[in-house]
Amino acid sequence: MAxxxxxxxxxxERPRTNWPFVIVGVVLALILAVGIVLSxxxxxxxxxxxxxxxxxxxxxIALLHIASERRLAAIDDRRFVSWNTAATEVxxxxxxxxxxxxxxxxxxxxxxxxxxxxxxxVAEDLALRQIQQEESLxxxxxxxxxxxxxxxxxxxxxxxxxxxxxxxxxxxxxPERTAAIMKKIATAKHGLHAMKSRLRLRLMIVLVTxxxxxxxxxxxxxxxxxxxxxxxxxxxxxxxxxELLQKLYVSE
Length: 252
Prior knowledge:
Blueprint lengths: L8 H4 L6 H23 L3 H36 L3 E2 L2 H19 L6 H23 L3 E7 L2 E9 L2 E10 L6 H20 L5 E10 L3 H14 L7 E8 H8 L3
Parallel strand pairs: 4-5, 5-6
Antiparallel strand pairs: 1-2, 2-3, 3-4
Helix pairs in contact: 2-3, 4-5, 5-8
């Protein structure tokens, strides 16, 4: 049996500072330190001992709190964020469905499927590169979270952005594709909720297009009409031009 991949969340998550706790702690430590100094000046050894003991107890509590927070974070990582690469068969089926749909829309023969497959793979790769560039966040590709597989996932503290990439040659996002995406994000949200995870999910739909300016206007109107009212999470729709992506990342 293959060894499960290490959980990278602890390496990717940016540590968050509990500023109210830090501020209160610093103020309390300063008060105790001032108390020690003043009691020493008055040669009140009993009061000095009391302040020193209080400062020692506070330091111990602070250290225990930090250790507890680290343990809880580690437990959360293992229990709630089980990153698994999407199964090869799932990835293959997903790509084949998209490529055959593109072939149908473009009315190309089966002998051109290989070229179309290559174009689709390149489009997805360049789109994810661009999104990572725009967001400046760690991006993991073809990951399953909460029982659903996505083309990519962005990690930003407790917010996970699930990315789905679609390659459009017509100014329309198929209802079947939209329904499949909605089902995925709903499955992921339900899966994390079932594990009592505190992670938040967001959906990003990246549309790689080869459309004219007029077709882009039509596509925007189509997307506005859909509204994604039934989505259980916030939705961010990005539109990227395939030709421009190739100029940015491929052409010299």
